[in-house]
Design the sequence.
C-alpha cells in the first residue's frame, strides 16, 4: 500500500514537472527555430498551433492582400501582463492573395493563395551580434511562396528596417492592429 | 534499482494517459459551454486559446468590418484528416469595426472595436431537438458588444439560416475562407 502511494506521489510530481516545463518551453522557445549562427527556420504548422495577433487588409489596385500575424502560444498573455514581448517569442506574418465575392454578409474578401511569410524572434540578449539579421532586439527572416522553407532576407537594415521604422516606439511591432494584446476577450 | 525503474515506468504511463486525455477533452469539449437545455455561453479568452480559421474583410460604405473566425484547438487538424468538423468543435466569429491608414505596407485596414460574436457548437447527436437554436448539426448563438456575455439569438430559422444557407453543402460553414482547413502550412 505504501509503495502504491509512493508510486502515485512520484507520478504526480513527474506529471507536474513535465507539465510546467512543457508550458514554459512550449511558449517562448523560439530559439528552437534558430541555429547556432542565427539562421531562422519558419515554424511548421503555425496555423494550427500559434495564436492570432491580428489581421491587416491591404487594399491595392494591383492585388489586394490579407496579412495575418500569428504569435507563439502565450505571447499575447505575456504581453498583457508585462507590457513587452517575452524573450523567445516568435511572430509569423503570413501574406496572402485574396478572393472576393458578393456574399450574404456583403462585399467579402478572404485569403487565398500564399505570397510570403515574415518571421521575427524576440531576442533580449543580443545573441548574434555579428549576424546582420539580428538587430533591435529581434531576429528577422523572410520566406517566399516559391521556396517556403528557404530564408531569403540578407540584413535587417536593407530588408526589414524601412517598413518597420514607424513602429520603432512599440518595439518594432505594429501593436495597434493586434486587439488580443489589450484583451483576451 | 528495480523499484526506481518501476517508479519511472508508472510515471510515464500516467503522464501518457493524462496527456492523451487532456488533448482529447481539451480539443472538442464544446459542450462545456452548453447547459442542459442547450443555452450556449461564449468561450472566455478564445483569442488566447483558439486557432484562427480565417479572416473576412467586408467592404461596406456605411462601415467596413473585419470578421475573424476562430475554432477550438485541433479543429482544423481534425477537419483535414476526416473531412468534417468533430462533434464538440466550437467556432467563434468575431465581428469588429476597423481603422485604416496609409502605412509602409500600403492602404492598410485593421480591426478596432467590437461589434458582435457568432458562436457555433458542432452537434452530431441532435442533443437538443426541442431547442430552436440547435439545428442542422450545430448549436447557434449570438452575443453583442453592449452585453458581450448575453446570448440574444432566438432561433436558427429566423436569426441564422438566411445568412448561412449558401454554405449548406459544406456543413453550413464558409470553408473557402479558411486556408488552415487545407494546410497547416
Sequence:
Amino acid at each position: 500500500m505504501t509503495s502504491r502511494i509512493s508510486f502515485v506521489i512520484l507520478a504526480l510530481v513527474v506529471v507536474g514537472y513535465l507539465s510546467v516545463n512543457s508550458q514554459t518551453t512550449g511558449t517562448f522557445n523560439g530559439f528552437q527555430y534558430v541555429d547556432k549562427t542565427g539562421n531562422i527556420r519558419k515554424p511548421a504548422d503555425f496555423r494550427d498551433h500559434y495564436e492570432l495577433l491580428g489581421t491587416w487588409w491591404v487594399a491595392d489596385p494591383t492585388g489586394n492582400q490579407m496579412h495575418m500575424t500569428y504569435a507563439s502560444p502565450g505571447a499575447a498573455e505575456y504581453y498583457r501582463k508585462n507590457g513587452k514581448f517575452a524573450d523567445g517569442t516568435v511572430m509569423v506574418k503570413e501574406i496572402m492573395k485574396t478572393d472576393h465575392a458578393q456574399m450574404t454578409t456583403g462585399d467579402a474578401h478572404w485569403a487565398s493563395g500564399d505570397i510570403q511569410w515574415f518571421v521575427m524572434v524576440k531576442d533580449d540578449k543580443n545573441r548574434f551580434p555579428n549576424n546582420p539579421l539580428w538587430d533591435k532586439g529581434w531576429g528577422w527572416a523572410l520566406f517566399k511562396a516559391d521556396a517556403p522553407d528557404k530564408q531569403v532576407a540578407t540584413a535587417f537594415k536593407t530588408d526589414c528596417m524601412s517598413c518597420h521604422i514607424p513602429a520603432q516606439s512599440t518595439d518594432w511591432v505594429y501593436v495597434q492592429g493586434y486587439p488580443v494584446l489589450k484583451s483576451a476577450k
Chain B touches chain A through 63 residues (CB under 8 Å). Residues 31 and 64 of chain B are 33 Å apart (CA to CA).
